[in-house]
Write a structure and sequence with these properties.
Elements lengths: L1 H11 L3 H12 L6 E5 L7 H8 L5 E8 L6 E9 L2 H11 L2 E3 L2 E7 L4
Antiparallel strand pairs: 1-3, 1-5, 2-3, 4-5
Length: about 110
């Protein structure tokens, strides 16, 4: 019964469920200057990717992850800055923006 009432609250209650996750995503803090970028166009090159994030600080590495077999982009990449402040600025400015016609989302990278 308790499980059914939880489902009912999620589906019938006010739409706070999604906003809770959105606030978690925006409030997570950076612990190191590496960002995970999702939603990258498959046509975007590493150089274009680096140019898009270059105005926010000195980039150590900007790389789009590619499939080993086909060489096609997997649709995400990583950008590493020299400081956490630069990475935070890039995250605030580039999150939920368009890059080559695709909406990209910038989040802190998680360690392996």
């Amino acid at each position: 019964m308790a499980l059914a009432s939880r489902f009912r609250r999620v589906f019938t209650g006010p739409y706070t469920f999604c906003s809770q996750f959105a606030s978690l995503r925006l409030n997570s803090t950076l612990t190191f200057p590496k960002l995970f970028i999702s939603g990258v166009s498959r046509e975007t090159t590493d150089d274009q990717f680096k140019e898009a994030f270059n105005p926010f600080g000195q980039i150590v590495e900007a790389k789009i992850i590619r499939d080993r077999a086909t060489g096609r982009s997997k649709g995400f990449g990583f950008v590493t800055y020299t400081s956490i402040e630069e990475a935070e600025k890039a995250r605030e400015e580039m999150n939920a923006t368009f890059l080559h016609g695709w909406a990209i989302f910038v989040d802190p990278a998680k360690p392996r």
